[in-house]
Amino acid sequence: MKISSRVDYALSCALRIADRFETKKPVPISYISEKERIEPDYAEQLLIKMKEAGILKSVRGSAGGYLLSRSPARITAKDILKAIEKDMIELVCSRKKGRRRNCAHLRDCKVKRLWIDLGEKIGLFLDKYTLKELLALRRRERNWAA
User: Fold this and answer.
1) Least confident of 49-63, 92-106, 107-121
2) For residue 76, with 0-12 CB atoms within 10 Å meaning exposed, 13-18 middle and 19 or more buried, which class applies?
3) How does strand 56-59 pair with strand 65-68?
4) End-to-end C-alpha distance for the chain, whole angstroms
5) Has residue 97 been placed in a domain?
6) 124 located within any domain
7) Distance between CA atoms of 74 and 62, rounded to whole angstroms?
8) Residue 81 to residue 118: CA distance in whole angstroms
9) How many domains does the chain have?
10) Looking at the domain assignment, is residue 18 inside a domain?
């Protein structure tokens, strides 16, 4: 499984917002993009996906930005991954294109269970890590506050 840079950046953006959760003030995209050294347009794309998934709320206006929709203790790494990538593991046999039509095992696949189980295990693993816990780790980094 390959974790995309989009998921990694989205998690970092969410952690910047989580870092200011207690202030109850929206975090501007400009602040997030500056701290994470990513383009504001790119950050906004990720933030919109997380908003659509119910992780974030947005506030318009000059004092606008993004807020977490719930406590950092109630948002997991799995929530972020699913908001950005939708499927943690996309099974070949459930794709609309590609090998699926020609798969010799499509009707009676016994190996499919392996991929389903792996997806479930990854989901359980990622559910163990909340933004609160990840933020505590991130705050220990030398360049976090910079």
Assistant:
1) 92-106
2) buried
3) antiparallel
4) 32
5) no
6) no
7) 29
8) 15
9) 1
10) yes
Q: Is residue 9 part of a domain?
A: yes
CA distance 123 to 107: 26
Q: What is the pTM of this model?
A: 0.86
- Model confidence at 128, pLDDT cuts 50, 70, 90, reads very high
**How far is CA 62 from each of CA 26, 29, 30, 65, rounded to the nearest angstrom?**
10, 11, 12, 9
Angstrom distances, CA of residue 141 to CA of 4, 22, 73, 144: 22, 20, 20, 5
Domain that holds residue 49: 5-89+130-138
**Those residues with Cβ within 8 angstroms of residue 7's Cβ, 6 or more apart along the chain or in another chain:** 80, 81, 84, 85
Instruction: Give the burial string for 88-122 (b: 16+ CB within 10 Å, else e).
Output: bbeeeeeeeeeeeeeeeeeeeeeeeeebeeebeee
Q: Determine the length of the chain.
A: 146
Q: Which residues pair with 130 in a beta bridge?
A: 76
45, two tokens: 């794309």
* Torsion angle in degrees (nearest 10) through CA of 16, 17, 22, 25: 130
Domain CATH number, residue 44: 1.10.10.10
